[in-house]
Amino acid sequence: MRKFKLFWDFDAEEKYLNDMASKGYILKKYSMFGFYHFELSQPQKLNYKIDYRVFNDREEFENYIALFEDAGWKHVSGTKRSGVQYFLPMNEKAGTDIFSNRASAAMRYKTFYDICMVNFICFVFNLTVILLTTNGNLSNLTFLTPGLWEMTGKDFWSAFFFELPFVILRVLPLIAFAAAGVLYFYWGTKAKKLYNLRISEEKSN
């Protein structure tokens, strides 16, 4: 079974996965953009824990997984570039959490925030490039057939539908970059607030 759901709060995501496991849906893997793949099993009481790390090379990623396995945690899903890394305890050696304190747990929100802001800047840059290549005239991305809007009847519809796929191809990247930029900025601000909240909670204890 596949479900679509978006999280920026890792604690809420862990609770969601634990609740799904209690209903017999065990996380098999997580795909990018919010798709969770579950396999049906017996209802179980599980303790999912989530870290957020991005790795530049395979060896660094494998050492990271090995470190957790030595501590009693099984890596359930995640790749070196996916960011989110999912773990389950393999034995009593694991304890109840993958983090030693709230401060270290809060750092995953800081990492998530940093990644979101980098992606936001990249999408803004690409959007700017598109606008510069059109000299700020967005009409250059729409219908370019001379005299299209003066045509009538069959001539209009023939020209309209002929050019429509090309208009979509020109406009779609602009919409995609704008939407992705807004989404990453939104996620980043939410992650930053959660990071600050967790740090303040740690200091108050």
Outline of this structure?
By secondary structure, this protein is α+β, with helices and mostly antiparallel strands. It has helices at 10-22, 58-70, 102-133, 153-204; strands at 2-4, 25-31, 35-40, 49-53, 73-77, 83-89.
Describe this structure in words.
With 205 residues, the chain is α+β, with helices and mostly antiparallel strands. The chain folds into 2 domains: 2-94, no CATH class; 102-204. Helix content is 54%, strand content 16%. Strands 1-3-2 form a 3-stranded antiparallel beta sheet. It has a 3-stranded antiparallel beta sheet with strand order 4-6-5. Helix 3 packs antiparallel against helix 4. The longest helix is centred in the last third of the chain and has 52 residues, at 153-204. It is elongated. The chain starts with a strand and ends with a helix.
Which keywords apply here?
205 residues; alpha+beta; 2 domains; three-stranded antiparallel β-sheet; 6 strands; elongated
Q: What global shape is seen? A: elongated
Given as residue ranges, the uncertain stretches (5+ residues, pLDDT < 50) are none
Fraction in helix: 40-55%
Distance between the termini: 41 Å
Q: How many strands in all?
A: 6
- SS class: alpha+beta
Instruction: Compute the number of helices.
Output: 4
The proportion of strand residues reads 15-25%
Order of helices and strands: EHEEEHEEHH
Using only CA atoms, what is the Rg?
A: 23 Å
Order of neighbouring strands in the sheet with most strands: 1-3-2
Number of domains: 2
User: Can you give the mean pLDDT?
Assistant: 88
